[in-house]
C-alpha cells in the first residue's frame, strides 16, 4: 500500500466559495470521440471529480452518456462532481445558446463552471457554425480585431448575465487570457470576476507571471496539457524521470504534482484507461525539486498548443503569432 497522498483527494478554494478538485479528466479527443465515454467512467470510478469538456470538442454527448450511467449506477452523485465546459469564439455573441446546447448533450441542468474558451470573436452564424470560419486563403474570419478589439469583453458581460439570471451555470471563468487581456477584462467586469483562468502550464511553460497576476486578483489558474499535449514531451525530460524514480511514481504523476503543489489544478488527457486509473498519486516534491523543474521552462520555454485562434492575444512563446504586440 502506497503512503503517497492521492491527487484525487485534493481540492482548492475558488473566490466564489466553490471548491475545485485538483485533478481533472480532459476530454478533448485527438481522434476517437465515442471513446471519451469510457474514459470519463474510468476516471470517475478511479476518484477524479473534475471533468473538463467544451462545446468545441464534440465530446459533450459522450461525457453525458458516461454521467448518466455513473448516476444510474450510484457511483457518484451530481453534486460530488465539478463539471467544466466552455463556449467557443463562434458563439461569443450568445453564450446562452452555447450552454443550452452543452447542457442538452451533457444531460445536465447546470455546469459548475462555464469558461470563455478564447478571448476572440469569430464571424459565424447564430448557430455557431462554421465553428472555424476561414476565408479562401485559409485565414480566420474575425468579427473583431483579435489584438485591439473589445468584443471579448462584451461576450464576458453576457456570461455575467447568464450567471446572474439563470441557474445554468454555478460559476464563470476564462481561458487562454494573457496578462494584457486580463487587465482589460478586469477593468470592465460588472460584478462577477472570473474564478478560473485555464491555461497551458507545465515545467516547459511555467507562466509564473500569469499565475502571479491571476493569484493577485483572486483568480485560480487551472493547467491544461500538463505533459505538453501530443507526444507528451514533458515525459521525456530527464529530471521528470529522475523524480518519478525517486518517488516510485510515473512521470505523468510528477507532471501533475508540478502543477498541483503550486495550487494549479491539473487537467491531463489520455486515451489509455490504465493511465487514467493509475496516474492519481501526488508525489511530495520538495521546494528545491519544483524549482529545478521550473528552471527548465525559464531556460527553454516552449508552448505546445499554438492554434491560430491564439494569435494576437499576447501569450508569450506562441509559435506563429505574428500579431501580438503587447508582452509584459
Ligand atoms: N482551454 C483550452 O484551450 C484547452 C486547450 C488544450 C487542452 N485543454 C484541456 O486539457 C486536457 C489535456 O490537454 P492535452 O490533451 O492537450 O494534453 P496532455 O494531457 O498534456 O497530453 C495528452 C497526450 O499525451 C499523451 N500521453 C499521456 N501520457 C503518456 C504516456 N505515459 N506515454 C505516452 N504518451 C502519453 C496522450 O496520449 P495517449 O492518449 O496515448 O495516452 C495524449 O496524446 C484536454 O483534454 C482538455 O480538456 C484545454
Compose a concise summary of this entry.
By secondary structure, the protein is an alpha/beta fold.
The helix content, as a percent range, equals 25-40%
Please state the CA-atom Rg, rounded to the nearest Å.
19 Å
* Number of helical elements: 10
Bound molecules: NADP nicotinamide-adenine-dinucleotide phosphate
Order of helices and strands: EEEHEHEHEHEHEHEHHEHH
User: What is the CATH architecture descriptor?
Assistant: Alpha-Beta Barrel
- The CATH homologous superfamily corresponds to NADP-dependent oxidoreductase domain
Output mean pLDDT. Answer: 97
The share of residues in extended strands comes to: 5-15%
What's the story with the biggest beta sheet? Answer: 8 strands, parallel
Low-confidence stretches: none
Layout of strands and helices, then pairs:
Elements (H helix, E strand, L loop, with lengths): L10 E3 L5 E3 L2 E3 L9 H11 L3 E3 L7 H13 L9 E6 L7 H12 L6 E4 L34 H15 L6 E4 L3 H10 L7 E5 L7 H9 L3 E5 L13 H10 L3 H10 L5 E2 L5 H6 L8 H13 L29
Parallel strand pairs: 3-4, 4-5, 5-6, 6-7, 7-8, 8-9, 9-10
Antiparallel strand pairs: 1-2
The structure holds NADP nicotinamide-adenine-dinucleotide phosphate (NAP).
Written overview of the protein:
The chain has 328 residues and is an alpha/beta fold. It has one domain (8-310): TIM Barrel. The chain contains 10 helices and 10 strands. It has helices at 36-46, 60-72, 95-106, 151-165, 179-188, 208-216, 238-247, 251-260, 273-278, 287-299, and strands at 11-13, 19-21, 24-26, 50-52, 82-87, 113-116, 172-175, 196-200, 220-224, 266-267. An 8-stranded parallel beta sheet has the order 3-4-5-6-7-8-9-10. The protein has a two-stranded antiparallel ribbon with strand order 1-2. Helix 5 links the parallel strand 7 (172-175) and strand 8 (196-200). Helix 1 (36-46) packs across helix 2 (60-72) and helix 2 packs across helix 3 (95-106). The chain starts with 10 loop residues before the first strand and ends in a 29-residue tail after the last helix. Residues 26-28, 30, 52, 117, 175-176, 198, 224-230, 232, 235, 252, 267-272, 275, 305 line the site of NADP nicotinamide-adenine-dinucleotide phosphate. This is NADP-dependent oxidoreductase domain-containing protein. The active site is at 57 (proton donor). The record marks 86 as: Lowers pKa of active site Tyr. Residues 32-293 form the NADP-dependent oxidoreductase domain. Pfam families: Aldo_ket_red.
